Amino acid sequence: MNEQELQQILEEGEGQKIEFKESLASLDKELVAFANASGGRILVGITDGRKIKGAKISNRLKSQVQDAANSCDPKIEIEMESFEDVLIIVVKEGVDKPYKCGSGFYRRVGPNSQKLSRNEIIEFLKDEEKIRFDDLRNSQFVYDEHFDSKKLDRFLRLAGISKVMDDQSILLNLGAAERLEDGRIIVNNTGILFFSRNLDYIYPHAAVTCALFQGTDKFTVLDRRDFNEDLMSNIDGAMNFLKRYIAVRYEMTGEARRREVPELPYDALREAIINAVAHRDYFQRGANVMVEVYDDRIEICNPGGLPKGLTPEEFGKRSVLRNPKIAGMLHRADYIEKMGTGVRKMQRLMSEAGLAPLEFAFTSFFTVTFRKAAANSEESSEITSEKFARNFGIKFGLKGDRLSRAVRILEILSGRERLIISQVAESFEVGERAITRDIKFLKDHGLVVFIGSPKTGWYVITENGMKLITNLNEGAEK
Fold it and tell me: Where are the domains of the chain?
């Protein structure tokens, strides 16, 4: 420190990183406050009124300061330097929070060192991830009433574990239960999330909520499902929901079976859902994992941003587990292949599919966005060209407005847009019944098909339809 820096500190006064002290009284309180926050400096020999009173700096004084740091639990790492008659104690942010002194737990908040109440200590421990949700117990869960042995049997089959012991012994070995001093077995939250008969009764916020929206915003919900049986069933349910609403094209491989190509890779979506379930903050009870399907994208979001100790720059390169027992159970059941490789795997799958890289957002929520492929404008213009329309009309005996409407329907579907009958009817100034007849004509000729449920499904072009479009486009170019 030099004279200029000291004068600047005196002008600015005490703050989040600076504390003035005339003596060493209550020094341990200030030490733990800075260690529990982001660190700071304590200037001994300066009054609260920013006047330099000075301190008699000696080895004895420095020894007293070190003793105060060592008496904290755990010990606090400090450095000391001096300038003229001012002793500067540099306190680094603690790596083993929380720190405690003889009078309790403190944390630096602005220019003050505030003592933490019981509830504040609990929240502090949660924030620092010293308390892990998957380790805790819940008194609502009564083993004889709420444990589902069939779910355990399913897990063992997936994990390739032989059932040679009783259920409680297996739970202990899996880390899904603990033995109390009186010999009783109590299931922890990991066991509850995987093996509860009615998870919605114990933890309703553990649900995965899936929603299909019309268009590109959240204005109109076309379909919604909430899955909350157990963590693995929730993942499977969410994937089945997505498969209902992801467009699929087919490629002929020369083999007996054709190749199914979804517009977004299933494995990447599944990995994202598993990550959301495994790494969400289960202490946040007001929000679920969300899987949202829009016309142009799919967003998968979970409560809790990046885990403590993981920076945005390190994301995808290093693995930090918020719920290690939950992740371990999913790994045993072969839901997670290898810790820390999921992000790279998803990006690789998107790249191999010729799609845009995934987008990640880190706030108090973690969101991954899958962008769908944009419609090919050149193909669409070819489909609506006069040559294509003429060839299509000749092949199917259509002409006039009926030909124009059929071609327009194919144009919409070939661009992977959702067909809205009322809009097509309005653009041609006809009734919806006429458009419905046109669609039936295309269905009868095997060019389009309806998929999904009657209320929320949609039309897509069939493999034969795509072949026809290709052939007529090529024919139109000759």
Answer: 3-127, 135-202, 206-371, 377-477
